[in-house]
Sequence to fold (119 residues):
Amino acid sequence: QVQLVESGGGLVQAGGSLRLSCAASGNIFSITAMGWYRQAPGKQRELVAVITNGGSTNYADSVKGRFSISRDNAKNTVYLQMNSLKPEDTAVYYCNADCVQRLTRFNSWGQGTQVTVSS
Fold:
């Protein structure tokens, strides 16, 4: 059982920055990777960034060079630094954890945090 709580969303103007945080609790030792997804109104949820326990990262093409995912294992927290924000980045951002326990793989999701970028 893993619980995820996001924070850091808000309203910013285009070109501004935000840092999202996701704190994990529970059986954090089952986590193998964590990532950020986002969902805009009327659109499907899409992967934004992912980081594995080994430190490998991947980003959606739309955010490469602007967003950066990182982690602090001591705090059981992952971050998404978002720079040069654009109105099209407006969405609810969700934290995700990929977990393995007793050879069973499952995902945990946070409640989401709203990011709104004004033009």
User: Anything to note?
Assistant: The first strand starts at residue 2 and ends at 7. The chain has a mean pLDDT of 96.
